[in-house]
User: What shape does this take?
Amino acid sequence: MTKPRVEITLCPDGPILIRGADHIIDFDGVAHSTIRPVVAVCRCGKTGRTPWCDGTHKLL
Ligand code: FES
Assistant: This one.
């Protein structure tokens, strides 16, 4: 069985883009499932949709 390929991209002053993951685990250990091919995870801590980026980082 081959492992799924997951790719991580850090956006300057923005989120972490994760391609190929079926879930992410937040800082509290809670798993968040996704069916999207790419998800944006907040890195600034100001999102209103934890753990996902909602674009708030652009206002900082
Ligand atoms: S990185 Fe986008 S809202 Fe935090």
Notes: The longest strand covers residues 7-10.
